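re: ur question from earlier - yeah i can do the single chain one, its not a big deal. heres the input i used so u can compare w yours
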Amino acid sequence: MTKGKSEHLPLIAFCALGVIWGSNFIYMKMAAHLISPLQIVFFRVLFGFIPVVLYAQLRGLLRWQHLKHIGPFFVMGLLATAVYYYGFAKGTSLLLSGVAGAVSGAIPLFSFLLAVLFIAEEKATRLKIAGILIGLVGVVIIGRPSGADLASTNLEGVLYMVAGSLSVGASFVYAKKFIIPLKIPATALTTYQLGLGLLVLALFTDYSDIGNIFSSTHASLGLIIGLGLLGTGLAYIIYYYIVEKLGAVSASSVTYIPPVVALLIGSLIVGEPITLADYGSTLLIFAGVFLLKQK
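and the output i got, formated as tokens:
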């Protein structure tokens, strides 16, 4: 590969990751018509775990001695996998896929709120407080009842999305305190997190009628390949590649892309009734997240 092409790979990976994450919501929405949210998460983590564990093994990053930290890994498996993904799957089942994707853009807002509460060195400046308030206004607006068919589910769906966002936000705070100091490679941590999350899901998932997903080729391929292999497994690998090449701060900016992709897929491809208020709410969420990143 020429030097010019290799220099563009991180940017290509950055854009690809945004599109992959943004398409997750339509795959969850399609699957939700056939199986339960918990079953969706089980399939997602199962097929997401496969490429991650293979990649980690090929790089020789897995160590038996890491298992002495199984307690913290288990907590991460709950916060950053099982609860997080369930909140998003349940929320997406109740919302338009584009709206669910837009709400997911608020993850940094909830992460910062929890960091301020539980990490002493995190300071809430006036600018960041303004960012939190603006972003939360966007979440509240997008959670409004929007028509007779959506009135009973819109708010509930947003609350599930918020719960998922709070869970993954709590995982960032927990990781900073208890995981990062262990100095274990991120790919290995992800493997343990997904593996233990999968174990929990395997124990608690109701497998009744789970085979219904295979009644639709489109939905089953979307769930297994789009949401599992690509949207979870490959997405983690790409993300850590971007962190390595561009740095953590630049890599975190990829969170701006999925909400836009989800809205466009929902509106232009699926034909969901996305309104101007939904787009406006997304911009407010973006504005809030942007202010959080300012020093």
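The longest helix spans residues 3-32. not sure if urs matches, ping me
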